[in-house]
Specification:
It is found in: Cell membrane; Bacterial flagellum basal body. With 291 residues, this protein is mainly alpha-helical. The chain is built from nine helices and two strands; from the N terminus they run H-H-H-E-E-H-H-H-H-H-H.
């Protein structure tokens, strides 16, 4: 007759609950996986399937009751780790969307905004177009599979433990967040430079011929040149986008390592051993020099 104790049941629950929490945290925050158009049932089913695959490879779990105070703290910590890894890659897509916002404002399409169901806000047409291109490029280079591989690797670099994580992960996320502005401006730089030259030419033309209506001819010209430059730069955006995806996945892989250094006080220095009969050396007091 098979008998099961409460300790065995708690161990089975913890071996599936804690990895599932980190996986669901990543799925809820990562791009493509966390899109609002994906049903919640599909997200939970994917998380359970991944947890059943990864759970046998997870290192030894802490001996804590999942329903205790320590077990709930582990659940919150794992959810935070998974959400931070997904948010790290989400920053890459935010940089691409920022490039679209800068391009739209420069082209004069700042008024052409649409409701974005993913962010529950408004974004420009160029921003949504670049976000769709980035999503297709992310799927074409198998970035979603590499992200799941980094998630499975995180259980080895940052094992599940009841010890609180250090604050290095928050600094890593803040440093990586600055990539939104630099990468967004770099992606939008061709359009911004072309439209800057166009506006200078229009200014010179208006100065030479004041009878021309700047508002009548300026908007169609800047809009047409913006679309032309965007169409010319799209074939060359594959390399910078792939580089951004690799940097984002590598940052998500390094994120658990920055949190792996737990806040453990350093050990006290060992006492100096003296030979029998030896006289310990004492540093002489430092006296200030007299002028």
């Amino acid at each position: 007759m098979i008998t099961l104790s409460s300790a065995d049941i708690n161990t089975w629950i913890a071996s599936l609950l804690w990895p599932l929490t980190r996986i669901l945290g990543l799925i809820s925050a990562a791009p493509v996986f966390g899109n609002r158009s994906v049903p919640t049932t599909v997200k939970v089913a994917l998380g359970v399937m991944l947890a059943m695959i990864i759970a046998p490879t997870v290192p030894a779990l802490p001996a804590a009751d999942p329903m205790s105070y320590a077990g709930l703290l582990i659940v919150v910590q794992e959810l935070l780790v998974g959400a931070a890894m997904g948010f790290t890659l989400r920053i890459v897509f935010a940089a691409i969307e920022m490039a679209g916002e800068i391009s739209s404002l420069t082209m004069g399409l700042g008024f052409a905004t649409f409701f974005d169901p993913n962010t529950q806000g408004r974004s420009s047409a160029i921003s949504q177009f670049l976000a769709l291109v980035a999503t297709l490029a992310f799927l074409s280079v198998n970035g979603h599979l590499v992200l799941l591989s980094a998630l499975a690797e995180s259980f080895q670099t940052l094992p599940i433990s009841g010890i609180p994580v250090s604050g290095g992960g928050f600094k890593h996320m803040a440093d990586w967040g600055a990539r939104i502005f630099s990468a967004g401006m770099q992606l939008a730089l061709p359009i911004v430079a072309a439209l800057l030259i166009t506006n200078i030419a229009l200014g010179i033309l208006t100065r030479a011929a004041p009878q021309l209506n700047l508002f009548g001819i300026g908007f169609p010209i800047t809009l047409g040149i913006g679309f032309l430059v965007l169409a010319m730069t799209l074939p060359y955006m594959a390399t910078p986008l792939q580089k951004l995806f690799l940097q984002g996945i590598e940052s998500a892989r390094q994120f658990p390592r920055s949190w792996a250094a737990r806040d453990i006080p350093p050990p006290a220095p060992p006492a100096q051993r003296l030979a029998p009969g030896a006289i310990p050396r004492v540093a002489p007091p430092q006296t200030p020099l007299k002028n």
